[in-house]
Amino acid sequence: MNKLVLILLFLTLLCSCTSTKKVMDSWLGSTKQRLIMSWGPPARTASDGGTGEILVYANQGYYPGINGSGAFTYWDYKYMYADSEGKIYYWMTRRERVPP
To answer: Is the pTM of this model over 0.90?
Structure first.
């Protein structure tokens, strides 16, 4: 029974990663302006090391732990890279325990 639960959990995670990739890939080639109009202003921006910028979006999550122990807060980050013309050319996601 436990193996079946683990397999179902793994398949669910695999499907969610695939759908996240599709959504994020759909923004490639779009404009920074469209992204901001859809997602709202980013939590912060940074240089991409060249003439573009990185728009950083963050959502807070909470892991309750097991039986009340090991609980922690985390942040899911979405980094959207825009070139000097405002076109999205790359994206990256990351989960961290550091707030924006």
So the answer is: no
